[in-house]
Amino acid sequence: MTGELKDGETEEEFLHSPFIRKQGNIYKPNNKDMDNDSLNEKTMEDVHTKEIDLVNRDPKHINDDVVKVDFEDVIAEPAGTYSFDGVWKASFTTFTVTKYWCYRLLTALVGIPLALIWGIFFAILSFLHIWAVVPCIKSYLIEIHCVSRVYSICVHTFCDPLFEAMGKCFSSIRIRTTKEV
Prior knowledge:
- Helix content is about 50%, strand content about 0%.
- By secondary structure, the protein is mainly alpha-helical.
């Protein structure tokens, strides 16, 4: 970058920073007061390399009401019909460990292919929304604007005089109500 540094400032490297002249930014030539803060309007964040939280894996709580199934939610013995304590403990351990390892095994086998499929799906969905849906809607709004102008002209040309004439005709009608006893 070229230009003069103010007292006490150091030259910094900026990603995608515009060329600076003594007169100011070449994209804003009348801006004589360019400073480093205006160059850093928004720091770009790379979403592909952001760190993920390995402790809280559902930060937006999208699965709070769906998959919280524990042993007590599925198996319960009413009072008076208890099994042996050892059987109850073994059942609890078997249920918990089986659920844990089956989930991990299924995730290892199917999770990455499903992540690939969902990534492709949402990429296609984003592509279609950006390159097809929004342009079609904008095109429709532009075309409907022309139709609305033609419709407005027709209404003002044909209907306004008709309704104005009818209003003048019916404005002289007086209605009087009387109460008969």
